[in-house]
Every structure is written in C-alpha cells, then in structure tokens.
Write a structure and sequence with these properties.
The chain is about 20% helix and about 20% strand. By secondary structure, the protein is α+β, with helices and mostly antiparallel strands.
C-alpha cells in the first residue's frame, strides 16, 4: 500500500543504501517508520535533514528510538527543520507555555490524575489548525510512559481522501471550513477560551481538501478545531463535518503508535489527524512527553 507521493529518495528498499548509513524501517500499515541509530543531540547534516523531511512526507510519522535529550537539545533539534511555534493555551498558573510544552496527566502537584486540566488531545485534530499558518510538524519526546496503553493514534488523511466515494469528493470540492480556538474549546467541553486567547487566535478559514506542498497529494483537513463550513447553514455544515470525520477516521485509515520511553516521534500535520488514547490507569501511572512544534504555511487548495 502506497504511503506517500513521488520523492527524490527511493524508500522502497527499507534498508538503504541511504546517506550517512541511515536506516528506515516501516512500522505501520497506513503510516509510520522508524529511523534507529541517530543521536539527535548532535547537529544534523543538511543531507540528513533533507532525508528526514522526505521520509516524513512519505511515512507521515517518524520514530527515533533510544534518545537522551534535554529540553534545550530538543529545541535545537526542532529548529533544524524550521521555525519553532508557540502555544495558545496557558499552563495551570495562567502563564504561556515555554518552547517545550509538557504534555502529561499530572496535576499541579506533579501527581497522576484521571481528570487532567485539558482533554482536547483525546479528540481527532491537526495541531494548530485554528492558526492562519497551521503547524507543519509536531515533535513529542517520551519521558515517562505507562506500562500499558496511552498510545497516540494517527489517521492518514491522504489515504482517506483517496477512498472517498466520488459523490462525497464532489460535494466537498471547493468547500472551506472555519477553524476557531474558542469553538474548539466548546467542541471538546473544555474551559472557555480567554479574551486574550480569542484575540490571539481569531477564526480562520482553510480548504476542507488541502494539497501537500511536497507530494501534491490531496487530503482531508478537519478536526476538533473545526467550527463550521463557510457560507453554509451552521447545522448543515456541521452535519457534513461529522459525517466526513467518521468516514476518514475509520480503523482502516488509522495507525496506533505504542510509545517507548526515550523515543522521539515527529509527525506531519499536513497529512494526518491524531489523538491520544486514555486507556490506562491515569490516576496511577504518569504519562509525560515533551512537545515542540514547527510552524507551517497556509494550506494549499487543489
């Protein structure tokens, strides 16, 4: 099954030969590849950076196992691929998150809890789709992982688009969706957005079908941050969003990534939706990951 478009590097032979003795091991049916043997504390060569970006466009989710990164080293690794992106949400003290945002199930006292302050990550979404220039890639570094469960699921939006009925493709052709941080908070039943957050992230409009800038493949662009379809009756538009979301997140389009401690994972928000799973004893086991995000560009229409 094809996991990507035409690229300069031929990944069909998973063991190479690739530059600098790099190895690519596909790990999922619809997305995912592992790149073992890299020490991400060291600066990467331009050839390696280009290779990783092409592998990202091909496999959508990349795993770099057995890392040992400080927060500063994760920031430096991220910046090699583009501009670092900030975060709209505030921490439990009402302050902006730092460059490395800690994603966890810990309460303000550092103890595991089954009632995290925010639970938006349990809904299908593409990171920062409520921005005019949404995220290119998200990077998570696993510090503490529960013994079972706590996976992240990725839905391949390119594959899902390809398998839509022609009638559905025709119906959504040219439609645009309004994405809005404040509506996302309502959709996920989280605390309302603050006035400052609403000012920082006003509603934006993106095509419901977007083109990947590197592979030219079409994909569906939706998620929990979607508010409504521009120019359409609210309820009619919401019905299309609900129906389409159900279609494109069927199990046959989903790769479930089981985390390993000290693993860094990088994924392409331009071709995926994702969500965390809460299927572990959240009040007993910590799940702590360090998150950085790469700024992207305005989604391209077909």
């Amino acid at each position: 099954m094809d996991l990507g478009g035409e690229l300069d590097i031929n990944f069909d032979n998973a063991s190479g030969p690739f530059p600098n003795n790099l190895v690519v091991r596909p790990i999922g049916r619809v997305a995912g590849a592992e790149l073992p043997g890299l020490d991400l504390r060291s600066p990467l060569t331009e050839e390696t950076i280009d290779f990783i970006l092409k592998a990202l466009a091909k496999y959508h989710v990349l795993s770099f196992p057995d890392q040992d990164l400080t927060k500063d080293q994760q920031v430096l690794f991220t910046k090699q691929f583009g501009e670092l992106e900030g975060h709209v949400a505030l921490d439990h003290n009402g302050k902006p998150f730092p460059a490395v945002h800690i994603v966890s199930n810990l309460d303000p006292d550092g103890q595991p809890t089954a009632k995290p302050r925010s639970h938006g990550n349990y809904f299908w979404h593409s990171d920062k789709s409520y921005h005019a220039t949404p995220s290119l890639a998200t990077i998570l570094y696993a510090k503490e992982i529960p013994p079972n469960g706590g996976a992240t699921q990725f839905a391949n939006m390119q594959m899902a688009y390809d398998e839509l009925y022609p009638e559905m493709k025709q119906m959504i052709d040219g439609l645009e969706v309004v994405h809005h941080w404040a509506q996302s908070r309502r959709n996920s039943c989280n605390a309302p957005a603050t006035p400052e957050q609403e000012k920082e992230s006003p509603p934006v409009t993106h095509p419901i079908v977007r083109i990947h800038p590197e592979t030219n493949r079409k994909s569906i662009y939706l998620g929990i941050h979607a508010s409504h379809i521009a120019g359409m009756n609210w309820h009619e538009g919401r019905e299309i969003i609900y129906r389409l979301t159900d279609m494109v997140t069927q199990p046959r389009f989903v790769y479930t990534h089981e985390w390993k401690t000290n693993e860094l994972v990088m994924w392409d928000n331009r071709s995926l939706m994702h969500r965390a799973t809460g299927d572990f004893a959240q009040d007993l086991h910590p799940r702590v990951l360090h998150r950085t995000v790469l700024r992207g560009a305005k989604p391209l229409s077909p």
